[in-house]
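Entry for the shared binder. Reason: the reviewer on the internal report wants the predicted structure included alongside the sequence.
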Amino acid sequence: MPAELAVVDRLRKRRDFLAAARAERANVPSFLLQGRDRHDEAEPRLGFTVTKKNGNAVVRNRMRRRLREAARLVMPQLGRSGFDYVLVARGPCLDAPFQTLVRDMERAVSRLHAAKKAKTPTSKTPIAPADGGRPA
């Protein structure tokens, strides 16, 4: 196995895929990126989901290989320690130029981590009128 691939481990258990599905998301045309912080310092892990609605086994495996190669190029630089990432393939993943796929991956990872930072608790509770009636 090449050295670059050792940086990102694979997700193998269903519970890890389900946990990532409940976490942050970033949409791009060719795939959906789901990511969750495990709150540890272990290396990032990556999982792939390609459903049967995308095509037969040959098509699904080709989509998975393209996503895996794009992730191999992007994740060592942009992936964070302690994160699980799941890539859910969409139809355009198969026909998009590879450089577009790589740019989508970079954009999705950046969006995912930007969304994580932006979700800080704020007090945006509406203030009820003093008389208990409806606001004007």
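Summary line for the report: Helices lie at 14-21, 57-78, 92-95, 98-118.
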